[in-house]
Structure formats: structure tokens, C-alpha cells
Amino acid sequence: LPVGGPAAHEALRRGSKPRRVERRRETRQKRISPCTYGLMRSVDRDGVILEEGHGTAVDDSPTGLRLLLGVAPAEGQLLEIQTGDSAFANATCLAEVCWTKPMRKDSQGALYLVGCRVSFGVTHA
Questions:
Q1: Of 52, 55, 88, 93, which has fewest CB within 10 angstroms of its CB?
Q2: Residue 11 to residues 6, 8, 18, 23, 52, Cα–Cα distance (Å)
Q3: Across the strands, what pairs with 40?
């Protein structure tokens, strides 16, 4: 049987797409919380700059989070995320970008949904 088990096999046999299998075992917590981020960008062979900005954390789980940002970080990029969410009381985490999906690009600027895996847990300031 193909990956996905009997239900995916049956869906393929009928010609429909198999349902997407969720890779995450934890439940995401829905939230909309302002955040700040910091990331390093290469300027040339010898230098990097620290880019800082504001975004929104739209949900999270114990091992990951999704962000709305005005920049499109590359897969594998590390972000320092700081939230002012009262549940975390100014939490900071280091997260690795897993994927970036463009949501909007217009006169107001670009907006990207960014999926991240927490690489270094939450610390409280």
C-alpha cells in the first residue's frame, strides 16, 4: 500500500486525492499575538546584517509556530521570535523556518505565512 494507509490507497483507486495527513502530533493553540523577530541576512562574502521587524504569531504548538511576516525568510533560516503574549510573559524562542507561503503582495506591501519549528525552547524575559 502507498504511504498514508488504506484510506489513501482507496482514494487513489477512486481517482480522488488522499486526505492530507497531519505531521504534527500536538494540537495547535489558536492565537493572534504581536511579535518581533530578528534574522541575519548576508550582505556579501564578508558581512551580514541583523534585520529586525514586527509580525504576528497566529498559532503555535509545543514544537512549532506560524507567523505572518512582511518578509519571506528562506527555508532553514533561523529567527529569534519575541512575543508579548501574556501567556508567555515576553517569551523568546529560536525557530527554524520550515516553509514560507506568500499571502499578499500589493501597494500595502507583502505578507507571508511562515511555518517554523522551535529549535531552542521558550525563555521568559
A1: 52
A2: 9, 5, 5, 19, 45
A3: 50
Enumerate residue ranges in the chain where pLDDT < 50: 1-5, 9, 17-22, 86, 88, 123-125
- Whether this prediction's pTM lies above 0.85 is answered by no
Residue 61: which of 115, 125, 4 has the closest Cα? Answer: 115
Hey, what's the cell of 4? Answer: 498514508
Cα angle value 117/76/35 (rounded, 5°): 55
Question: Strand, coil or helix: what is 104?
Answer: strand
Residue (of 65, 51, 73) closest to 120 by Cα position: 65
Query: Exposed, middle or buried: residue 55 (CB in 10 Å: 0-12, 13-18, 19+)?
Result: buried
Helix (H) or strand (E) holding 34: strand 29-44
Which pLDDT score, from 0 to 100, does residue 72 have?
A: 93
C-alpha 38/C-alpha 50 separation (Å) is 7
